[in-house]
Amino acid sequence: MLILISLIAVRSKDVLNLVVLICIYIILPFSLTACL
Known about the structure:
Strand content: under 5%
Oligomer: single chain
Number of strands: 0
Radius of gyration: 16 Å
Structural class: mainly alpha
Keywords: Membrane, Transmembrane, Transmembrane helix
Distance between the termini: 52 Å
Helix content: over 70%
Transmembrane segments: 15-35
Number of domains: 1
């Protein structure tokens, strides 16, 4: 049971990291072009 919960936690953490990375890749170019 604990192993299952920890696996789900790791999976969700990976998904969150992916979402954050995607947001950074989407926002950074816009902020750079806005600054330039």
